[in-house]
Amino acid sequence: ALTAGIVGLPNVGKSTLFNAITKAGALAANYPFATIEPNVGSVTVPDERLDKLTELVVPKKTVPTTFEFTDIAGIVKGASTGEGLGNKFLAHIREVDAICQVVRCFEDENITHVSGTVNPIDDIEVINLELILADMESVDKRIARVAKMAKQKDKEAMVEEPILQKLKDVLEAEKPARAADLSDDEKKVIKGLHLLTIKPMLYVANVSEDEVADPSENKYVKMVQEYAAAEGAQVITVCAKIEEEISELEDDEKKEFLAELGIAESGLDQLIKASYSLLGLATYFTAGVQEVRAWTFRKGMKAPQCAGIIHSDFERGFIRAETVAYTDLVEYGSKPAAKEAGRVRAEGKEYVVQDGDVLEFLFNV
Ligand code: GDP
After folding, report:
1. Which of the listed residues 193, 211, 230 is the one where a domain comes to its end?
2. The pTM is what?
3. For the CA atoms of 354, 355, 361, 365, what is the dihedral angle to 10 degrees?
4. What PROSITE patterns would the database entry show (predicted)?
C-alpha cells in the first residue's frame, strides 16, 4: 500500500498530529489482518459518497477504504551528513510515497522552537535542504559510475547520463528533484535512485486553537502559502491539538464540536483527502445488499487490475465490469433505474476505471 510520511523539525506538532491519526484509526480499525508498525497509522478515508450509497442500498454493512501515514520523527539540521540519527531518518523517508511536512505556525512561549523563533520558511528550508543534499550525494555517486559506462558506449548509460545531469543542475540550485520536470520515461530511468525530493510533498501548517477557524489571519500561514505556491505545492491548515482532542469522538459529536469552533471540515480529514490525491489514488465502490464498500486504486488502472484489488481470482477470471458512475446512480436512485436510463455500461479489459465508479465484476472461477 502507498503511504505518506509525516516529517518536520522537532516541536512542530508531529507527534500530536500522529496521535490524532492513530487514535482515529484505532477507533475505525475494522480489519484484523493488517499488522501495523508502531510508526504507521491507518485512517479511514472520509467520503460522503459512501454515506449516500449506504442510504440508497441499505446494506448489512458499510466498509470505508483506508490509508496509511508513517511517522518519521527526528529530522534535524545536518541529517544528510549523518548528524544525530540523520541517515536513519532519511532511509525512512525513502520508503514513503509522498511527504507531508508539518510546519509550526503557532506561537507558544512554553514550547521551545529549535532555532529560537517561529519562522516557518526557515524551518521548511532546513528540511528541504537536508533532503536536497542527500539527493545530491545519490546523484553524484551515480554520475561517477554512469559517466564511465557512457564513455564505453554503454547504451543505457548514455540515456541516463543527461538525465542525471539535469537533476544535478536542479539540486545544485537548491531546488527539489521534482522541479526538474522529467518525463515519465525519464523518471523510470532514475527510479532506482529512490530520490527523496522527487516525491510529491504537501505542507501542513499547524496553527493554534484560536486561529484554526480563520487561518488567513495567521501571518505564518500566509508565508507558507506563498512559499508553497511558488513550488506548486498544496497547504493544509490544521490545529494538531484540536485534532488530537476530537480524534476519539464519534462522527456526530465531532461535527458538532467543529461547528462550535467554526470549522467546516476537520484538518485531519482534509489532510487525508489531500494526501490521497497527491499519491494519485482514487476510489471505486462496490454496492451490494450485503456490503457497500469503498476501494482504493491508482488512477489509470484498468478494470481487471481493479478487480484484483478485491481478490486475485477476480483479476484472473475477469470477464467484464458492470459499471455505473456514482453521480448517475444517485440521480436515478437505484441501479435498475439507472440501467433503464442506459447508464449502466458493460466495460471490458481495457476500461480505465474512474473515481466514483460503482462496479460489479463478472468473472470465471
Ligand atoms: P513534535 O516534536 O514535532 O512531534 O511535536 P509535538 O507533537 O510533541 O508538539 C510539541 C509541543 O507543541 C507539545 O507540547 C504539543 O502539545 C504542542 N503543540 C502541538 N500542536 C499544537 C498546537 O496546535 N497548538 C499549541 N498551542 N500547541 C501545540
Report:
1. 193
2. 0.87
3. 90
4. G_OBG, TGS
The enclosing domain of 325 has a CATH number of 3.10.20.30
pLDDT value, residue 197: 95
pLDDT at res. 83: 58
Examine residue 312 and state whether it is found in any structural domain, yes or no.
yes
- Using most ligand atoms within 8 A of CB, pick from 72, 111, 211 the residue to mutate for ligand 1: 111
How many A from CA of 108 to the centre of ligand 1?
Answer: 9
Q: What is the pLDDT of residue 200?
A: 93
State the pLDDT confidence band at 215, using cuts at 50, 70 and 90: confident
Contact in structure between 126 and 229 (CB atoms under 8 Å): no
Residue ranges for the known binding site for ATP are: 11-16
CA distances from 290 to 58, 100, 244, 312 (A): 9, 37, 34, 21
Residue 102 shares a structural domain with residue 230: yes
Reading the block at residue 185, the C-alpha cell is 520515461
The answer to whether the CB of 114 is under 6 A from ligand 1 is no
Span 247-262, pLDDT tens digits: 888 888 988 999 988 8
Q: Which of 12, 16, 70, 261 to mutate to test the pocket of ligand 1 (most atoms within 8 A of CB)?
A: 16
15 lines ligand 1 (CB under 6 A): yes
The CB of 11 under 6 Å from ligand 1? The reply is yes
Question: For residue 7, how far is its CA from the centre of ligand 1 (angstroms)?
Answer: 14
- 166: domain CATH number is 1.10.150.300
108 in ligand 1 pocket by Cβ < 6 Å? yes
Is the ipTM reported for this complex over the cut 0.85? yes
Dump pLDDT digits (tens) for 307-363: 999 999 999 999 999 999 999 999 999 999 999 999 999 999 999 999 999 999 999
Alpha helical stretches, state H, 152-266: 155-172, 184-189, 219-231, 240-246, 251-261
Range of the domain at 252: 3-47+64-115+199-278
